[in-house]
Design a protein that fits this description.
about 375 residues; Lipocalin; ten-stranded mixed β-sheet; seven-stranded antiparallel β-sheet; 5 helices; globular
């Protein structure tokens, strides 16, 4: 099975680079609009004239000009819809497949949480080896022609040595986006395969439990990604972080509904007990192209494309900063006027990070999701801001 996994890695995937900013389809539409508008205005500069067509219908110049503008607006609308469909199709190609790796839970201080003793092999207990990581699978399938996606978080029981063929599932958590089985309350996506999702987990009336899922693709390696879940308790308008769940995953081939397992051919390793990211690598001034999805007043439209929104500048300090292994960090901060911001980030190279944010209003409603590719500014500026 491991051999089969490794043999398909480099041949079955068409990957496109993470593009910041996105292609400006709006500019194409604008040029189209300007072209037609000039035709309408310049061709009919004498409003006192009327024109009769071969079918005997009579039009004034203003009527013809309005018809031309109306046609352009319809054309622009079609372009926008087509662009959104193309983005989803590309997203579907990049996110779909067999993603295998490791997963671990962390406390709100960033401390790894041991696996239950009942699932740890006797040999590990005899050797007094602490186990923090699950080996995981995440078979994912997004339909290119529909805004529908499903995936499974599969945890495998720990094994001693290379026992991939004997791996036993401990749990399966299936997630559905779109369609009749939709369970997500908000979902924002990029063509690269990155996405951010808000999952309502529980609601006992006074306290709601949400999972904020951030999926980040390595901009320099489209077959490598991290998914970070921030489990958040929402009491009215107050957000309290409960715990953090991290998955580090590699792409191992086309979607096979979990039948394929990387096993001993897996290109990653257990990570929970590794050293955490250094605060000095995070604190300072960052900036870079930003893509945004606006959920304020979106009504029932829970699914949004992340669109280019210029350059974002961020100044980070170490307050509320939770440092995690694998060059990851996250935070949950209350801003001015009672707003709350959830952030996760992956330092995929020195001075280079990809970040995901969810912004909530003072009423506890999702306002905006953004994903940015940021770099640190010069050290001189960085020192001046401290």
């Amino acid at each position: 099975m491991a051999l089969a996994a490794s043999s398909v890695i480099s041949h079955n995937r068409t990957v496109k680079s993470l593009a910041f900013p996105l292609p400006k389809h709006g500019n194409i539409a604008a040029n189209h609009h300007q072209h037609h508008s000039k035709l309408g205005l310049h061709s009919f500069s004498h409003p006192q004239y009327v024109y009769q067509c071969s079918n005997s219908r009579i039009f004034t110049p203003s009527c013809i000009a309005k018809t031309a503008v109306s046609d352009v607006q319809l054309h622009n609308s079609n372009l926008t819809t087509a662009a959104a469909d193309n983005t989803w199709s590309e997203f579907a190609r990049n996110v779909s497949g067999e993603w295998d790796g490791f997963g671990a839970d962390f406390s709100i201080e960033g401390t790894p949480i041991e696996l239950p003793e009942s699932v740890v092999p006797e040999a590990y207990r005899e050797w007094e080896v602490k186990v923090y990581d699950w080996q995981t699978q995440c078979p994912t399938l997004a339909e290119p022609g529909e805004n529908v996606m499903t995936y499974k978080n599969i945890k495998l029981l720990p094994t001693v040595g290379c026992e991939a063929d004997a791996a036993t599932r401990y749990s399966v958590d299936e997630r559905n986006i779109g369609g009749v089985d939709n369970k997500v309350s908000a979902f924002a996506y990029k063509s690269s395969g990155c996405y951010t999702a808000v999952w309502p987990v529980a609601d006992n009336g006074t306290l709601k439990l949400w999972e904020l899922e951030h999926c980040l693709i390595n901009p320099r390696d489209k077959e490598s990604r991290v998914r970070i879940f921030q489990v958040v308790g929402v009491d009215g308008t107050k957000f309290v972080l409960q715990n953090i769940r991290v998955f580090c995953e590699q792409w191992y081939g086309p979607f096979r509904n979990g039948d394929q397992l990387g096993g001993c051919a897996i290109r990653d390793s257990a990570f929970a007990s590794m050293a955490a990211t250094k605060a000095s690598d995070v604190v300072g001034v960052w900036e870079g192209p930003n893509a945004v999805a606006d959920f304020h007043g979106s009504g029932d439209n829970f699914l949004q494309e992340l669109k280019d929104n210029g350059v974002l500048k961020s100044i980070r300090d170490d307050s509320n900063l939770i440092l995690l292994p694998k060059q990851l960090w996250c935070s949950l901060k209350e801003r001015e006027e009672g707003e709350t911001c959830s952030e996760v980030a992956w330092l995929f190279d020195q001075g280079c990070a990809i970040t995901s944010r969810c912004s909530f209003s003072s009423e506890g409603k999702l306002k905006e999701v953004s994903i940015a590719q940021e770099t640190t500014v010069s050290e001189g500026v960085k020192q001046a801001t401290r």
